[in-house]
Specification:
This is proline dehydrogenase. With 305 residues, this protein is an alpha/beta fold. It is 50% helix and 13% strand. Helix 1 runs antiparallel to helix 11, helix 4 (69-88) packs parallel to helix 5 (108-124) and helix 8 (199-215) runs parallel beside helix 9. The radius of gyration is 18 Å and the shape is globular. The chain starts with a helix and ends with a helix. The structure holds dihydroflavine-adenine dinucleotide.
Length: 305
């Protein structure tokens, strides 16, 4: 039943008509628990509140799978507006973005142009940029773009997904760049030809890449709400005398909020991923797919109003 629900939400997350409708009608169905608001002003208010609690942020102007040059350029413009707001208000925030929002499905030239514009602005304001990882069909291309840009910029990192079979090889291959990587389990629906179907195998591979990347001496973001992964990391860094300055925990806005605060109190760096914007639908559907309890939350929200 849980698997069926998960697959249904992941299937719905890619529906273009529903995405358009969601943009038109604004934040609904309890999405505001996971999305900071539709404007940069609302997002900066949320960042300020989180910063006050010593939580760092990475902000994400929501958008994915754009198919026109105009939309891709507009997405990049909005990322630059976000970077300028971070700089102007001196916020403790990085930026995250998706390659399909920069024109990945259109051409390499468009993506690279947009990314160079963003990275220049980010460099000027001291903002670090992370390229999110999308579905498997875009993984190779995303890694190639990251490698290309990493030669020119040092304020860029990307995401590696533990559910993919290729991941250990990617960690090994990328090591020569000493990359700052965010490690996640993976949020998309992938076939068994490319990704571990069993959760236990994903968890084992996740631990494996956390260990590899940390012991390679690279900065590591452990982006997970899973207590077992947090505990594993704590033990590992203790065992190998890895300083707190070499890693951080990351969680999504609206998920395990109290735990985020506790980790700060325990002395760890904790970064919250804060999405905002009108293109909230796909992101929201993936969060529902992750956890049936969130669906109950949404239904309660829908019927209690
Ligand atoms: P898992 O899903 O195994 O859950 C373990 C436990 O965590 C649950 O039992 C529950 O206690 C708690 N939990 C998990 N999800 C919850 C929820 N939604 N609500 C409440 N409790 C929850 N993916 C991707 O493919 N590309 C990317 O670029 C990113 N980027 C990214 C950034 C950040 C900062 C985070 C935290 C995550 C991502 N992800 C991602 C998503 C990631 O791949 C994964 O889908 C989710 O983090 C859920 O997996 P967990 O590791 O949290 O554990």
């Amino acid at each position: 039943m849980e698997q069926l629900m998960r697959n249904s939400f992941l299937f719905l997350s890619k529906n273009k008509a529903l995405t358009k409708m969601a943009k038109k009608y604004g934040l609904r169905f309890g999405a505001s628990r996971f999305v900071a608001g539709e404007t940069i002003e609302l997002a900066t208010n949320v960042i300020k509140e989180l910063n006050k609690k010593d939580l760092c942020v990475t902000i994400d102007y929501l958008g994915e799978f754009v198919d026109t040059i105009e939309e891709a350029n507009e997405m990049a413009d909005n990322c630059i507006i976000a970077i300028e707001a971070i700089g102007k208000e001196n916020l403790d925030s990085q930026l995250s973005l998706k390659m399909t929002s920069m024109g990945l499905d259109i051409s390499d030239e468009i993506v690279l142009n947009n990314m160079r514009r963003i990275l220049e602005a980010a460099k000027k304001h001291g903002v670090f940029v992370t390229i999110d990882m999308e579905d498997y069909t875009r993984c190779q291309k995303t890694i190639e773009i990251f490698k290309e840009l990493r030669k020119e910029f040092d304020n860029i990192g990307t995401v590696i997904q533990a559910y993919l079979y290729r991941t250990v090889d990617d960690i090994t291959d990328l090591n020569s760049l000493s990359p700052n990587l965010r490690l996640v389990k993976g949020a998309y629906k992938e076939p068994a030809e490319v990704a571990f179907p069993e959760k236990k195998d994903v968890d084992d591979n996740y631990k494996k890449i956390i260990k590899m990347h940390l012991l390679n001496g690279n900065y590591t973001a452990i982006a997970s709400h899973d207590e077992a992964m947090i505990e594993y990391t704590k033990q590992l860094v203790k065992e190998h005398n890895i300083p707190n300055s070499q890693f951080e925990f990351q969680m999504l806005y609206g998920i395990r909020t109290e735990r985020q605060q506790e980790l700060v109190k325990e002395g760890y760096k904790m970064r919250v991923y804060v999405p905002y914007g009108t293109d909230w639908y796909g992101y929201f559907m993936r969060r529902l797919a992750e956890r049936p309890a969130n669906v109950a939350f949404v239904l309660k929200g829908m019927f209690s109003k």
